[in-house]
């Protein structure tokens, strides 16, 4: 097993645990995540650029909720930090925290093909 496959399996196992090993539901969750997370990051980026902080905070809150449900701590922690900056109007720290969130989402996205390939195979995951 390659390192990338092992990392993909770690993400899969987190969601499998949440779905009580329901492979179809796990696949559905990942499809939704891979659709929504990049879109949410894009909305946040544009909102921050245009100083629409309420929209950025609202979207970050949704992303934080998704990451929390899934148990993806890296994304969850980055979203939480950005959301706190927005709530507390700590504008100096927003850019750095947004970049950390964007990076965490990109790390997950790099595993999209491997995750989807593994879940679409009929073989046992465990």
From TrEMBL:
Q: Which PROSITE patterns match?
A: HPT
Q: Where is the HPt domain?
A: 22-122
Q: Where are residues bearing Phosphohistidine located in the sequence?
A: 61
Q: Which GO terms describe its molecular function?
A: protein kinase activity
Q: Which UniProt keywords apply?
A: Phosphoprotein, Two-component regulatory system
Lineage, top-rank taxon, reads Bacteria
Query: Under which name does UniProt file this protein?
Result: HPt (Histidine-containing phosphotransfer) domain-containing protein
């Amino acid at each position: 097993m390659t390192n990338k496959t092992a990392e993909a399996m770690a993400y899969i196992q987190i969601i499998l645990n949440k779905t009580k090993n329901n492979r179809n539901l796990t696949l559905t969750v990942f499809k939704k995540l891979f659709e929504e997370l990049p879109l949410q990051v894009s909305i946040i980026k544009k909102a921050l650029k245009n100083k629409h902080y309420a929209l950025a905070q609202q979207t970050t809150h949704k992303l934080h909720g998704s990451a929390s449900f899934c148990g993806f701590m890296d994304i969850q922690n980055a979203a939480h930090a950005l959301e706190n900056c927005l709530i507390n109007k700590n504008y100096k720290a927003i850019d750095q925290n947004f970049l950390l969130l964007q990076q965490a989402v990109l790390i997950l996205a790099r595993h999209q093909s491997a995750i989807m390939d593994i879940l679409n195979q009929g073989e046992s995951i465990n």
